[in-house]
Amino acid sequence: MSVSSSPAALPSRRLAIAPMLDWTDRFYRYFARQITRRTWLYTEMVTTGALIHGRDAGRFLRFDDCEHPLALQLGGSDPADLARCARLATEWGYDEINLNVGCPSERVQSGAFGACLMADPDLVADCLKAMQDVTDRAVTVKHRIGIDSVEDYSYLRDFVGQVHAASGCTVFIVHARNAILKGLSPKENRDIPPLRYHYVHRLKRDFPALEILINGGFTDWDAIAAQWPAVDGVMVGREAYHNPWLLAEADARGWGDTEAMPTRLAVVDAMVSFMAAQIAEGVPLKTMTRHVLGLYHGMPGARQWRRMLSDPNRLRANDPRLLIDAANAVEQRRAA
After folding, report:
1. Are both 132 and 276 inside the same structural domain?
2. Domain that holds residue 246
3. Which end of the chain is more exposed for a tag (fewer CB within 10 A), N or C?
4. What's its EC (predicted)?
5. Is 53 annotated as a binding residue?
6. Which residues are catalytic?
7. Alpha carbon of 284 to those of 273, 275, 318: distances in Å?
8. DSSP state of 36
9. What is the spatial distance between Cα 216 and Cα 212, in angstroms, rounded to a whole number?
């Protein structure tokens, strides 16, 4: 287990990487932390059932100390179960515990949590309050602007107002799209419902004392920076995964931290050492290399980098020095 730094020592949530199922596991988060020191990292959603009834809660909760500031995102709707998981998160040293009220998956809905909870703000408040009662860490909520055909701004305003009044929660992370609970896949729910950034901006104006983060569709620094005057922070999703070097500017742009960041080759060296330690514990190399395929995104040699790190024959050797070979091949091509 790890022990978190004190909440007072944590940076603001100017920029965060969204929780993404199957993507933001501890291997990706370690990689992202080699590129940015201050950006908040969020785990992929972990259900309360996996932690309470699973045989190995540590598989979901384990992280490296370098990952701070770090939030655990929980999926669930039973206040007692969420409280039990919040205790675990505190013991393990997470800096924040986030409740998922945004996932539109029908599988999640069958467990009565995710975006469908927006229809029951009293239950959401009960869940948050139960977690707050057992932890000294920040308890936050991530949600949509509405569900199904309910598109009035008043729905979002009333949801946030009721949840805040009943629970005291002060941090709301808002995916600026509706969640369509029937008829659209989770992927389609990330693209088809229109983005309404102005709803989230208005929410911040209506609740100036609350910390409001905006999420949805951000792919470059112009778009991210344009949000900061209107909200407290921006959460970036898939762009941070597919194009991780975007994060190289995060510390300077978000917090004025101009300390030089490592080069791509330095990141590779750090990942080789990390992967070697994980392989010694029985983690296959291919489980980790999939998370670093975007390191050279958009650059000459990017295809070669991805091809070498995806080659089954090379991966079979389980030797992390494959990253060094691939990086050298790319750098030689760039220098030619």
Report:
1. no
2. 7-255
3. C
4. 1.3.1.91
5. no
6. 103
7. 14, 9, 7
8. -
9. 14
